[in-house]
Amino acid sequence: MGNSRSKPTKSTGASATLVHDSDQISMIPEEGRYDTCRILVANGIPNAVWFEDLLALHGSDTIVWDLSHLIDDPNAAAVLLCKLNYKCVLPDDRYEHIHEIAQSGIRMVLPTNGLKIVLLRAHDWHYDMSTCPKSCVPRICDFLDAIMDLWLNMSSVEYDDRLLFALHLACLIDYAYSLKYHHGKASKANSFAENLREEHRELHFDMVSNSKGRESWTFARRHERHARTYRNIKEGNFTPEPCTPTAFKQSLAALPEQ
């Protein structure tokens, strides 16, 4: 029996739950797709909607695949769900290059509706479950903080060895800056940096700049610069500032190597 591949589903119903990023979605979405959120919460297991579903609930028109949940202990959640007739299934082979999903994640299906979910370890995705709202839908700024931190923490060797994973993270970051309605306007503003951790703000300013010279995500040099800037911000050697025509940005060579 080989690995299986999910069928994409166009996100629907998200507009009914859209909120400003300074607020939080106050309730678990009413769509049946999110019933697992309610089941886990009712049994004392906090969980966070992740990946494309989270983006869709915040205004993205992205296609959704399996419903991913971040959980502190996926194994405990899986034991509970098995008692409720959920069945474990093979990982989606689209993610075979991401061990955080294919190896550490637990993929399950509810036979009554065929919806596939994936239970992921929150620690692997740099997300603190103590910050998860009751709605199980993190704010977009908290999603960005987690995904940016993963991308920025990759060493140059890891970036080369796990290029597909690095590009997957970059794609998620791009989605978060391509939201519809007021969400897109909010995340594209320099002031949105106030919602992010300081060490991620330089990457934010790069994302919202209109610089024609901005490098593609596929260029390792872009990652190298931001990873080094990230480390220097944490060491107090660099202050993130918005990109403006008069702003002076240190060259990569001028940044101390940590």
TrEMBL record:
Species this protein is from: Coniosporium uncinatum
Name of the protein in its database record: Uncharacterized protein
